[in-house]
Amino acid sequence: MDVRYAVHPEHGKTFDTSALRRHFLIDDLFIPGEICLTYSHVDRIIAGSAVPLNDSLSLEAGSELGVDFFFQRREAGIINIGGPGRVITEEQAYKLGPRDGLYLGAGTKEVRFESGSSDNPANFYINSAPAHRACPSRIITLKDAREVNLGSREESNERTIHQFVHPDVVESCQLVMGLTLLKEGSVWNTMPAHTHDRRMEVYLYFNMEESTRVFHFIGEPSETRHIIVKNKEAVIMPSWSIHSGAGTGRYAFIWGMVGENQTFTDMDHIAMEDLK
After folding, report:
1. Which domains does the chain have, with CATH numbers?
2. In this structure, are residues 99 and 80 in contact, taking their beta carbons and an 8 Å threshold?
3. What is the spatial distance between Cα 46 and Cα 60, in angstroms, rounded to a whole number?
4. Which of 42, 57, 73, 99 has CA atoms 20 to 30 A from the CA of 153?
């Protein structure tokens, strides 16, 4: 498990490109036959992936968690961006097709990942947060998710937000998670920008061509920087940072938030003239 420590905004201002990428970019996801996890000390979120091939993969608690099993004091949202697969717990086997989601509540003792075919393996993306109470596990298909349409073609940011783990869809302790699909011709996400000091966020960018890149903007509104992101890479964003991006071509992204509340609209909007 890769461990990332929290960064103070004054420290973040001093980062060059390599430091920004080292602290905030997760670029080792979706390795065939492996589970890859990154533990961030920003609200103690874990972002990771599981790509099972012929054999199942078990999600274990490492020494970083100091518990008997992974979900002893945690919950998780899982969205599959690959081929069909299954997530198997001690109680149930959940079939997840492409872009299906699953919420697993605290107390789940056994979690294994399987693919329907090693030729087209499942790509399970995982966001996990500390949980002080148990909520029922539940599968969430793309049709089950709550849709929110935002943006416009004129502003190149027309998009549909699919809220998977959200109070209006499924009960969770603190995790909120979903998937955003941009309309044809739109390249911007989350612009005008905002922050939410009560919650941090992780973005996973996917559904991109090999040559496509997203310029992801990070930093305080008065001190913005950018990280260039490839397909199936994620960015950790502390609560003091904006989180916005523009792509050179088609892309989608999965967002996950943890922190003080689950209010999706709790945002501190940034005026365009205040961005620097």
Report:
1. 2-274 (2.60.120.10)
2. yes
3. 13
4. 99
Q: How far apart are CA 121 and CA 89, in angstroms?
A: 19
Tokens of 87: 């997530």
Regarding predicted confidence, which is higher, 190 or 41?
A: 41
Q: Note the pLDDT tens digit of each residue in 174-205.
A: 999 999 999 999 999 988 888 888 899 999 99
187: which 2 tokens? 């390249």
